[in-house]
Amino acid sequence: QVQLVESGGGLVQPGGSLRLSCAASEFTLDYYAIAWFRQIPGKAREGVSCINSNYGGTYYADSVKGRFTISRDNAKNTVYLQMNSLKPEDTAVYYCAAYYMGRICSFKGELYDYWGQGTQVTVSS
What is the CA radius of gyration of the chain? Predict the structure, then answer.
């Protein structure tokens, strides 16, 4: 079954770190741009970070720039989102998504072919 599976979410104190993983099943991520989105109930989905399909180019929302880092390990068929200096406003459900042949990634969700089920990140003392 083709799917993306996120993991690594949880409860962390402000200033702490988490690393989210997005693993692909039954397809290879090599030819896909990957993005992380997040959503708070009642609010619009927000693009957080994305990485191009060709190893180049990473992009970040202004709200996370300097704190989050996206990376991919094609050998493990996994994309990661390292989140440091977490703030309460980072609390959300985080989703990864894959965009076939996405040479330039995007925060336009309609471009993405596959989505994960989401993982909850809660930043609270």
Answer: 13
